[in-house]
Each structure stands twice: as C-alpha cells, then as structure tokens.
Amino acid sequence: MTSNAASDAPSVEVLADRPAVLRVDGPPPADPAAWAAAHRGELRAAVAEHGAVLVRGLGLADAPTVGRVGQELLEEVMVEREGFATRHLRADGVYSSSEWPPDQPMCMHHELSYRREVPGTLLFACLTPPASGGVTGVADSQTVLEALDPALVARFQQTGWRLDRNYTDTVGIGRAESFGAGDRGAVDAYCHRWGIETEWLPGGDLRTRQRSAAVLRHPVNGRLGWFNQIAFLNEWTLDPVIREYLTFEFGPDGLPFNSRYGDGGTIDEATVLAINAVYEKHTLREPWQAGDLMVVDNLRMAHSREPYEGEREVVVVLGDPVRVPDPA
C-alpha cells in the first residue's frame, strides 16, 4: 500500500492478482465530478504507475455523472468509430458496454487497437453490478508479451496482424454505426483516410481489411507491449455453434470479423488458445460494486469481460486519443 502522509491524497492498495484499488474515505462525495477534479493529479499518477486503478466509494449512480467525471479526468473525450459490437449512447460521451451474450466471455483486448487512432485512456463505471461474474479483468501488455512464445511473437512482429470485416444488413454492426455514415462515398472517404481497404460486394455489402502492428511501444513510458485484438476478434473465439452457423450461411470469408497474420495467413486455433492462456495467467480481477470507477491505460493494459448472471450495467468513456504508428 502506498500513501501520502503529507496531504489528504487517497491511498492506493495493491494486492496480488488484483488491480490497484483507490478507496474514497468516508461516505460517497456529494459531487463525484468535483472529487475527480480535486484528485485528478493523484489518480492519473496512480494509473501511470499501475496501468489501471479501481476507484471504490465514488458512488457513481447515473451516466450523466459518469460523463462529468470523464470531462474532469480526460484531456479529450472521444466518439467511438469502428466498434465491433453495438453500443448505445447513455449520455454525452458515455456508452453502454458492447452488446455481447452474457454467458459468453469477451476475451482480453485493447480497445480499438486495429485503428490508427486509439483511446489512450478508458473509464469504466459500474452503475449496476451483476448477481455473479461479469468482472472486467485487466492484464499488463508487457508482461503478456514477455510470457508469449518468442516464435509466435516474432512472426507477428514481422507481418503484423490483419482484421477482416464484413458489413451486411443481416448480422454484425452496421456501416452507419461503425463509420458515422452509411452511404458509399462517405464510407470510402473514411476508409481511405484511415488506411482501410474496401471491397464492395454485389448487393451493397462491404468487406474491409486493415493491417496493424501487433506490438506497440508505449509513447510515454517506452515499454513494449502486446497491443492488439488478435485472439478476441478471431473465428476460434466465437462460440462453436455460432461459428459453424455463420460459416455455413456466409462462407469462411464472410464472418462479421476475423483476424489473420498481416500477410493474410490463417491463424490456427492453437495460436488463439495459447494467447488466451497467457492472458488468463496474468489477469487481475476485482468484482464490481455499485458506484465503482475503473481508469485504464488502454495502451498498457488489455481488458476483458467475464460471463455473468443477472442485470449488469457498466458504462464506458473513451478518451485521450493517441495516433499509433502505421505498420511497417
């Protein structure tokens, strides 16, 4: 545990297998945004040190309050583009969690890591905790990189990774939600700007490809980390029944999303399982409580969402955009 005896700065508790926890002393503050403004420096410093910090006792109760906290803690709040699953806008700059079956895990990933401009910081706020499960786990990208098979890392460093997506009217996220506009001209302009290859299919469906580096050097601390969504956005992470149905219905190249080696090579199931096994070994967990806030350095820490039962409302704010280097 670390503390600052010379001031009223809140202490940060660090325990094995758990993210760092900062506890707000006393009853929840009357205005969480004012608390965030007063403690912004200490909280941002703690995130820089630990990668992610769970703030407990802040008493967040609604999305507009979370939005005001985001305005105080972040340099800039971002609008989501190119998301892989539907979100709903709950308040200005505040999104619902991605729609994903509650009985299926969302594997470790760095938010929007396939984009050229990514959120540097994420805010997760728990308005309603689930009856069980539903933890948002985090894992340090440098630790994960060092634990992966060097041969696996070397191939991805050489080729990068590629994300293939299909936009249809029947499955997956729509073009307008992903790109902010649905007409062909606007989509082509967006994709050209951000280095995304487009292929318009008969009937108006769209197929895109975008290549990214699999390893990122953190622009502030210089650490190399495993920064991507290779394992999560891969066919082998889909529920087998869903994968078989989608493959039968749309063909092997028609899945809503799939990751590949940067040269187009297929990633086999064993590679996906190996990556996820390393993530699992290094996951930090703390069950949600109502009113919690988690601040995450998205460049340093991957995050996941575990299966859950009951109602669960966790909202997110994306912020502090960072332009990542184009793949070599």
From TrEMBL:
Cofactors named for this entry: Fe(2+)
Limits of the TauD/TfdA-like domain: 30-316
A Gene Ontology biological process term: antibiotic biosynthetic process
Keyword annotations: Antibiotic biosynthesis, Iron, Oxidoreductase
Pfam families listed in its UniProt record: TauD (PF02668)
Entry-linked Gene3D superfamilies: Clavaminate synthase-like
Alphabetical list of InterPro entries matching this protein: AlphaKG_dependent_hydroxylases (IPR050411), TauD-like_sf (IPR042098), TauD/TfdA-like (IPR003819)
Molecular functions per Gene Ontology: oxidoreductase activity
Keyword Oxidoreductase assigned: yes
Protein name: TauD/TfdA-like domain-containing protein
Organism from which the protein derives: Streptomyces antioxidans
